[in-house]
Amino acid sequence: MYKVVSKKNGKYGIQDTKDGVIEYFTREELIKIRDVYKLKVMNIDKAINDISSNNVDMDFVARKIISKFSGYSMKEIYYSDEDNPSKSDKVNISFRDWGDWVLPDDIDEDEVEDYDWEELSRESYIKLKNIIKELQSQFSNVAFDIDIGEKNWITITASYK
Question: What DSSP string runs through 118-129?
Answer without folding.
Answer: -EE-HHHHHHHH
